[in-house]
Amino acid sequence: GAGVSQSPSNKVTEKGKDVELRCDPISGHTALYWYRQSLGQGLEFLIYFQGNSAPDKSGLPSDRFSAERTGGSVSTLTIQRTQQEDSAVYLCASSSQDGYGYTFGSGTRLTVV
Amino acid sequence: AQSVTQLGSHVSVSEGALVLLRCNYSSSVPPYLFWYVQYPNQGLQLLLKYTTGATLVKGINGFEAEFKKSETSFHLTKPSAHMSDAAEYFCAVSNAGNMLTFGGGTRLMVKP
User: Fold this and answer.
1) Using CA atoms, how far apart are residues B89 and B24, in angstroms rounded to an integer?
2) Rounded to an integer, what distance in angstroms lies between the CA atom of residue A6 and that of residue A75?
3) How far B16 CA sits from the closest chain A CA (Å)?
4) At a CB cut-off of 8 Å and minimum separation 6, what does A105 contact?
5) Which residue in A28, A43, A99, B9 has a CA-CA distance of 20 to 30 Å to B92?
């Protein structure tokens, strides 16, 4: 597609429920990233996929968080047993392999009540 | 390792005044440098980037930034602020690979 698409744009969930956030990167972009932006905070790196390489999961805050990328394209970020501190905007970005910057999606605003 | 420091989490200017948002970085290799802007309830949009060549780079919406290696800085400027410039601005650095490291962001407020 023309840009990075994220869905849903907003998600309200009850504490303890699992959620899945979807990211559809720009066609042909080999690298895909997930970031978290909490209220009034900067960007917190979560996970990075590059081609067929093993993902860099060093930013995932707990084992409740996981992500996969199917067929080198669409990615899903899953948060299990959500907690109130998981409330944030989750941003996805993709880039071509040359590292000349990212293109971001509009994000998913997650609210855990 | 690389890092980015944005001085001033909030900057307020009057409409028509100079905008100056400060960014200093550390990098063990020649850096690629970026400025992104985030409008309310939106994702981040690339304003401008420096990779190689001319150290003064021009971006969208009248913004520009100058790479100063001796000062390890990449400050963002605009001669005359407009109300529509009110947003959050993020500086980022990479080492020619794909991973960007972001600063903490600066919220720009423009007073009428």
Assistant:
1) 14
2) 10
3) 27
4) A3, A4, A5, A6, A23, A91, A92, A93, B43
5) A28
pLDDT means over runs of 10, chain A (113 residues)? 90 98 93 89 88 90 95 93 96 81 92 97
Name beta bridge partners: A77.
A21, A67
Judged by CB atoms closer than 8 Å, whether chains meet at B44 and A101 is answered as: no
**Structure tokens belonging to residue B104:** 């903490």
- Give the bridge partners for A68, in sequence order: A76
Q: In whole numbers, what is the pLDDT of chain B averaged over residues?
A: 92
> What percentage of chain B carries pLDDT values higher than 70?
97
* Strand A10-13 versus strand A43-50 pairing type: unpaired
CA closest to B48 among chain A residues: A101
List the structure tokens of B44: 């981040």
Please report the sign of the dihedral spanned by the C-alpha atoms of residue B75, residue B65, residue B36, residue B96.
negative
Chain B contact for A25, CB < 8 A?
Answer: no
Phi-psi region of A69 (alpha: psi -120 to 50; beta: other; left: phi over 0): beta
Distance between CA atoms of residues A15 and A49, nearest Å: 28
Q: List Cα–Cα distances, A96 to A32, A49, A80, B14, B43, in angstroms.
A: 9, 12, 30, 38, 18
Residue from B108, B59, B96, B38 nearest A105 by CA: B38
> What's the token pair of residue A39?
């209220």
